[in-house]
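Trying the structure run again after the queue cleared.
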Amino acid sequence: MKVCLIGTSNSIFKDGYASAFRDDPRVTNFEKYSIGASPSIIIPYFIESIDFSKFDYVVFDTAINDRNYYKHGSILKSQIREFVEWGVHSAHEAGCNTALLVMPSKKGFGKETISGKIYRKIANETGAVLLDGFEYIENYCDVESVHLDACFIDNFHVVKPIARKMGYSLIDKMHLNATVAKVKKHQKFCYYSIDLSCHANKVVTRKTSLAEQRLAVLTGDDSIDIYARSPLDQVVGISFNAAYSQSAIVCSTAPYMIKNLKTKYFSSGKDLLTIVSPVTGEYVCGNSGKISIRLAEAGEVETEVSRFDKIAECMVRSGDVEIGSLIMKAHV
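Done. Tokens:
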């Protein structure tokens, strides 16, 4: 099998569940696209650079952050469904089967999560393989006679050896699956990204051992002007470097979008911590399709809260930001 993975922080660990895909002899080629602390908006963010026709399977793992963002009002139920369903549809259209992995959180047991419900519904409708991590961990605890706490590093990350076993279990399901992927009728919208570093006066290149990214820098009175493909296109997400962003940005859409980019990762000591965050409002370009982006000023109240800072009527913070791209939705 040739496998592609789009996942969040659990997929980043070298010896976590993704290591099963890397090491299993049944997987002849494996490519991984991972961003932590981000929900299913990473699916349209990554898909532009992925040729699904090269793979037999693509695995989507965004459920854990989808429910976290949903709890904080930073993603809509309809958006979770739309982003995941669009990813599944895009893969199936390219002749690639899909698998959905619901990674568990320690506090999520004993209740139905919104993202788990959506993942199951999409799997039932499309024939995608599904592995429910909550069920997996519960069974593991019963068989091995261990307490739930022993299965987690923290609230959101499964202990690596157990996660690796979970990865092998998903490979088993994919290997045995004989269901032919269902292709739904052509969707009436698509997504694309606008690289803001190509339009900014100030740019910076940030690096880690795993990634490198060129970013636009907004300071003081700087602004970035970009053009959407159509005046009717809508801003649905933004990628930014959380390690160097502590303020909010204003996009001159209709209505204006004021997006808080503050997270707990600012000044973390890392050079690059990319987060891709959705926006929940309907922000259309309008007029000529031009969007101007600037730092928010003191007194401008955010219209889009940060997943990490939901405070009623919170005023925006001062400071620079490093932003990567806008994710746009276009009707076709």
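DSSP finds eight helices and 15 strands in the chain. Worth checking whether this holds up in the mutant runs.
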